[in-house]
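Before the break, one more example. Copy the sequence into your notebook; we will annotate it together after we see the structure.
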Amino acid sequence: MKSLILKAFVLMAVLSLSSEGVMAQGFLKKLKKSVESVTSTSTSEEQSKQEQPADSVDVKDLLANPPAYSIKKVVLTDENGEKIMNEDGTVKYHYLVIDDNTGKACTAEHSKKIVNARLKSYGKILAKVGSGAAIGALGGLLQKDKKAAIKGAAIGAATGILASGDDIKQIKKLNKSLKAYKKQLEIYQKTFTEEGTPIDASINLADVEGIDFTEAEVLTKSAADVRAELAESNTESESLEDVDLDEAIG
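Here is what the structure looks like once it is written out:
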């Protein structure tokens, strides 16, 4: 049923765009190929979702659970709940990577692997070409705008059938955030030890390659919890592969 409806919409696309002339013919050929792929995919999905390729991606899941990390100034407490201080009596801060989704501390290496893995997934979606052209064109037709239909098809062809136009916008937005996380994590690794103390005590933390670490949000956590959380992320990190983003995104 879905395939019949889709074919009807595609026929509308052909009739609507045919007046655009020779330039539109190439687009229509690509649209025809895209329709065949989309209808084939729709049929297979109706038969059984389990028949999808092993490397298929659940876009909705990726968008619903984006990784998010931040560097925070953490005040540690001892077993009695007392703040751990410096020798001069001032509060001792540990600059730690915090998983904003769980509130747990984690190593920079662990979080960087997670970020790279997600960038790889998003990169593969954005690089997908072909059967998204028909979906993009239908979006333009609903706006009754031929130029928008052609533009929509171009966008669809660049993303495949795995994601809608709104999904792609969200992926691009998340990609920007992930790249910012990655840059910050790389600077963090050059500045702090795994325990969150400065590698060089003389460094100006208010301006490290443009980052003011002293303005970070302050958290209070028990030293025992932090040790356990860092150990847990270390263990998880060992099971994660290093991602070659150049190879992943192509």
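The longest strand covers residues 69-77. Strands lie at 69-77, 93-99, 105-106, 218-222. Try to locate both features in your own notes.
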